[in-house]
């Protein structure tokens, strides 16, 4: 009886020490998940830029591994639509003898200009005046980081034309690192609030590019020869 009691007393510290050695799952040390730093680095690489970065093959390739396979496919669809549109534009321009790189048909030029000059990945048409990143938060084995942006714009009469935007970035584990799988944007300006997602932006803009491509491909262009101006 004394031997059994002694064994029980001696085993208590061992059990306590064993339980204390089991790490709790936290945002900084998720059990069985990639290091949180990989997620924070991906978000800052995409959103922490101080210049406007139009979405094109050359700008996306350095960022490709920051995104999940699902979002990579959405971006690739947009890039294919952009490539097809550009090829159609170049073919029509060459046929019409137009050599200026900036030329677009008048009925699609404005829409194409807006899409090709914006950064779809961050939903930016201009550079924010301030950017702030939240601490990573682990929920249901997904990582969440919020990006807050502020835009300052004052009219000549002193009216505040600026706004604020937040991006809720959701990351999932892929190939040993955290990658961006969804971005939900909330934009507040002029007393209104607009919400959208990165996947919706990519799908919308890709559709507009395909519409523009169809218009150019099916449009008839009249080529006129320049004539000297008469003084009479």
Helix percent band: 40-55%
Mind describing the biggest β-sheet?
Answer: 6 strands, antiparallel
Q: Give the rounded overall mean pLDDT.
A: 83
- Overall, the morphology is globular
Instruction: Using the CA coordinates, give the radius of gyration.
Output: 27 Å
Beta-strand content estimate: 15-25%
What does this structure look like?
The protein is globular and about 60 Å long. The N and C termini lie far apart (129 Å). It has 232 residues and is an alpha+beta fold. A hairpin with a 2-residue loop joins strand 2 and strand 3 (142-151). Helix 4 packs parallel to helix 6 and helix 5 runs antiparallel to helix 6. It has six helices and six strands, in the order αααααββββββα.
Overview in brief:
The chain is of the alpha+beta class and 232 residues long.
Task: Summarize the helices and strands and which ones pair or pack.
Layout: H1 2-20, H2 36-47, H3 57-60, H4 69-96, H5 106-117, E1 130-133, E2 137-139, E3 142-151, E4 163-174, E5 177-189, E6 192-197, H6 198-218
Antiparallel strand pairs: 1-3, 2-3, 3-4, 4-5, 5-6
Helix pairs in contact: 4-6, 5-6
């Amino acid at each position: 009886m004394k031997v059994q009691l002694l064994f029980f007393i001696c085993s208590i510290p061992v059990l306590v020490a064993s339980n204390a050695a089991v790490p709790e799952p936290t945002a900084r040390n998720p059990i069985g998940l990639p290091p949180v730093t990989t997620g924070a680095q991906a978000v800052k690489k995409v959103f922490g830029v101080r210049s406007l970065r139009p979405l094109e093959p050359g700008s996306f390739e350095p960022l490709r591994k920051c995104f999940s396979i699902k979002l990579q496919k959405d971006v690739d669809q947009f890039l294919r639509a952009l490539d097809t549109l550009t090829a159609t534009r170049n073919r029509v321009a060459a046929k019409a003898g137009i050599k200026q790189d900036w030329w677009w048909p008048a009925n699609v030029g404005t829409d194409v200009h807006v899409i090709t000059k914006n950064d779809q990945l961050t939903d930016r048409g201009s550079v924010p005046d301030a950017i702030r990143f939240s601490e990573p938060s682990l929920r249901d084995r997904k990582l969440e980081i919020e990006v807050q942006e502020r835009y300052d714009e004052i009219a000549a009469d002193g009216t505040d034309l600026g706004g604020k935007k937040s991006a809720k970035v959701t990351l999932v584990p892929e190939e040993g690192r955290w990658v961006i799988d969804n971005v939900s944007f909330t934009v507040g300006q002029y007393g209104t609030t607009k919400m959208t997602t990165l996947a919706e932006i990519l799908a919308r803009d890709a559709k507009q590019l395909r519409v523009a491509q169809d218009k150019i491909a099916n449009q008839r262009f009249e080529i006129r020869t320049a004539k000297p101006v008469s003084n009479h």
